[in-house]
Amino acid sequence: MKCLFLLNCRPMMLITILFCLPSRKHSGEDLLHFDINETWRAMEECYKLGLAKSIGVSNYSCAKLSKLLENPTIPPAVNQVEINVAWQQQKIASVLLRE
């Protein structure tokens, strides 16, 4: 965040937190543990400072999105997920449409 400010960069259009899906070799646990709320607070600070025009997430499951939505000051503008004819992800789609 400081780097963007010190370099006097123009605001980014969208900054997202990417959640990588584990390969089939791994269990359902996160490969990298991090505090979603602390990371999101830093993203909100970028938004408030004008370093990002919007903030969001990518590949968040219903559970991860629900956890994130417990305490945000600024809700995510987007949850970028892959949806196609073969992989419709109706559960996450219905949650996103509700929010």
Automatic annotation (TrEMBL):
<dbReference type="InterPro" id="IPR020471">
    <property type="entry name" value="AKR"/>
</dbReference>
<dbReference type="GO" id="GO:0016491">
    <property type="term" value="F:oxidoreductase activity"/>
</dbReference>
<dbReference type="Pfam" id="PF00248">
    <property type="entry name" value="Aldo_ket_red"/>
</dbReference>
<protein>
    <submittedName>
        <fullName>Methylecgonone reductase-like</fullName>
    </submittedName>
</protein>
<dbReference type="InterPro" id="IPR023210">
    <property type="entry name" value="NADP_OxRdtase_dom"/>
</dbReference>
<dbReference type="InterPro" id="IPR036812">
    <property type="entry name" value="NAD(P)_OxRdtase_dom_sf"/>
</dbReference>
<feature type="signal peptide">
    <location>
        <begin position="1"/>
        <end position="27"/>
    </location>
</feature>
<feature type="domain" description="NADP-dependent oxidoreductase">
    <location>
        <begin position="34"/>
        <end position="93"/>
    </location>
</feature>
<keyword id="KW-0732">Signal</keyword>
<dbReference type="InterPro" id="IPR018170">
    <property type="entry name" value="Aldo/ket_reductase_CS"/>
</dbReference>
